[in-house]
Amino acid sequence: MTDVPVLQVDDVSVTLSGRHILDHVSFDIREGEFTGLIGSNGVGKTTLLRTILGLQRPDAGRILVSGSPMSPRSRSLGYVPQKIDVDPDVPMRARDFVALGLDAHRYGLTRRTARQRELVEQVLHDVDAERFANSRLGGLSGGEQQRVFIAHALISQPKLLLLDEPLANLDPKSVQQIVALLHRVARSYGVAILLSAHEMNALLPVMDRIVYLTGGRAASGTTEEVIRSDVLSQLYGHHVDVLQLHGRVLVVAEPGQDNEDIAQHPTLTLG
Amino acid sequence: MVNAWEVGTMVAVVGGVVGFFVVLRGSAFPAHAIPNGAFAGAAGANLIAVNPLIGLGVFSFAAALGIGTLSRRGRSDAVTALALVMMLALGAAFLSLSSQYEPQIFSLLFGEILGVSSSEILPVVALGVVCLVAVAVLYRPLLLTSIAPDIAAARGLRPPRIEIVFLIVIACATTMTVPVVGALLIFTLMLGPAAAAQCFTNRAGRAMGASVAIALVTIWVSLVSAYESNWPVGFYVSVFSAAWYGIGRGYLWWRTRQPGRTTS
Amino acid sequence: MHVLFEPGFFTSAPVRTALIIGAVTALVSAVVGVFVVVRSQSFAGHALTDVATTGGSAAFFFGLSPLLGFIGGGVLGAGAMELIGVERARRRDLSTGIVLSTALGLASLFLYLDTTNGATTGATQQLLFGSIFTVDASMVPLVLGLSAGTLAVVIAINRPLLISSISAELTKARGINLRGVGVLFMMAMAVSVGLSSIAVGSILSTALLIGPAAASVRLTKSLHASLVVAGALGVVATWLGILFAYDSFYWVPSSQGLPVSFFIVSLIFLTYLLSGLPTVLRDHRRSARRDSGAAVAATRDSLEVGA
Prior knowledge:
The complex is a heterotrimer.
Chain A: E1 7-16, E2 19-29, E3 34-38, H1 45-53, E4 60-65, E5 68-69, E6 77-80, H2 94-103, H3 114-126, H4 142-154, E7 160-163, H5 172-189, E8 192-197, E9 209-214, E10 217-221, H6 223-226, H7 229-236, E11 240-245, E12 248-253, H8 260-264, H9 266-269
Parallel strand pairs in A: 3-8, 3-9, 6-7, 7-8
Antiparallel strand pairs in A: 1-2, 1-4, 4-5, 9-10, 11-12
Chain B: H1 2-24, H2 28-47, H3 52-70, H4 76-97, H5 101-110, H6 121-137, H7 139-147, H8 149-154, H9 159-181, H10 186-200, H11 204-229, H12 233-256
Chain C: H1 13-38, H2 42-61, H3 66-84, H4 89-117, H5 123-129, H6 140-156, H7 158-166, H8 168-173, H9 178-200, H10 205-219, H11 223-251, H12 260-275, H13 277-286
Helix pairs in contact in C: 1-6, 1-9, 1-10, 1-11, 2-3, 2-4, 2-5, 2-9, 2-10, 3-4, 3-9, 6-9, 9-10, 10-11, 10-12, 11-12
């Protein structure tokens, strides 16, 4: 266990098309931590993830991965994007796509070693994808493709795995399964996880820390530290209440509050 | 006629390999547009009495760069369409300024494979080798950027850059193939065989191999047919390529109707 | 002024016919083209012109009117496109490409047969690249009629057409027949492509279809504005092209002049490039940070529904 955080987001601000999407956002992620990035749709979660990945240059602040400035070339981060929709005509098996996770960046044609092939088998096993490993990637269901993409990201053994809204559009049972899977592989691969979602309850059992994003500002810490009326009220800029009910969390604004997040995204009010 | 076989074989190999990625990336339109740049180049070279291959090369290269950079700003399909017709119009203008308007147009557009001279073999083969080497070097980056560009970008690959390089590869392939099957029909060889191949197998490497094999068969049969009937070789290439595509689709359709089978 | 309008321009009958036919076909193409661009069907639109080429060369071979052939080919091509459908873009583009190349292959056969069997020369040049100065004046009423009809159809279906371009779901929800609108529009495309093939040749009629439309979509914000601007751009480019081509008889020593289509296409291409200028200038002034290594960097234009 080293001291240097795997990820340091340091006072990052991003403006797009005149809007301040991210406003002095700061938080750290330590080795092996499971962090949920919670915020309603359109609040800037994807922008934050893209900034961390080096795909979006921040106007201010910096991103450090294991103490060094972030660059996509360093390939220290794994990424599972939000939209996973591979064309069914594409001639590629799930297994081959996972193998690409090892060497897609390499130029030239080199044969894969036996060790590499073993690694592919191992990762496929760990994400429960052995059953359809030889099927065409585009022919798999959304959930199956998602697992293949996770395997693809894991196989290069990154320090941190970022997932953009992996739980959106999934039925509750699938949500449980994927959260359990991520928790499991996080432990066995020793990889930290940063996962964005607009609904935090499914993650409460596994989250070590939470980054709560609204209006461009973020509060980070454990769920006990962040999901409190005083902290969130300050974040939102007006009073909100936090209710705990049957093990679930609700964030509720007073009626008449002109707050986009809570008013228009009831999933957030349900916590 | 012997020359035609050698050149034709090279054309088929390159067409099959490059075509695999053209189909994978959905780049049918640029693959159609860039050869039209070649048409203008050959016509222009003809006008100033320069080796047509140079004109072909320069203009397809320019077309590739033009389409690549302009696509980033506007709608890529509209830009591609306009670049395409601009090249054609330019070629028509060049040809009208020379004295051999009519027959030149036809052979540049539709091919004159039986008229390939020995002096043209070497540059054609050289260009072919360049194309194949480029694809070999970029094989894996091309695969990832074609299938999952977001992930590729996160890994430090640069999809826009790779796209431009690929368009240049198409330009290269075009330059060597236009004298054979003509500007308008080269891209048939890049479409049909590869499209059929991806129906027959799940594996990228095998699909590329199948693409080359089908392209070879297509061009050999087309050469024989063109020789026998005197009809343009491009005609046969396009008809056979379309037929292969139909066979591929039909095969897929038949497979999906087999009960309880997953594609293997 | 005399330098610009070489002698005989305004009195020459072929020129007058060319101006009328050119303007009308450009107008129709531009209006239809706006929808083609908005529906991102530029490839399909271009493929139609190539199928029209087949029709034209076949008609020529069988001694029929090329206009008939162009339109007939376009209609067949439109039918094929409808069969292909619009599901996934990759598969749709692939099928479009195959149809296109088969059509061109057939065209090559007919053109070959034209030149070897028939006594006529210059078929390729005429059909593919246009011969607006040699269009018979008797064609004008037919062209006018077809153009008016096509315009009427497009204007009649313009709302459902726009809605169906934005969202298939929304179209069905409103009770609009998605397939029906699509087919009608494809037919309109086929006829307009056939008409402009007379003016600039089948291979180049894509320019009249896509160019003015794409430029005006970049410059305007509403559908109606872009229709008007596109039409204007198309007509102006065509008239200027005819003028320059006529003048080039005198400018170019070979005394054959450069093809009209060359001038028209060049002007249209230039217009399109210039239409991107405002955005470039705006971006420079803002000096916005660009995404590094972003997967997709294209900016998309958008149109609002309604005026």
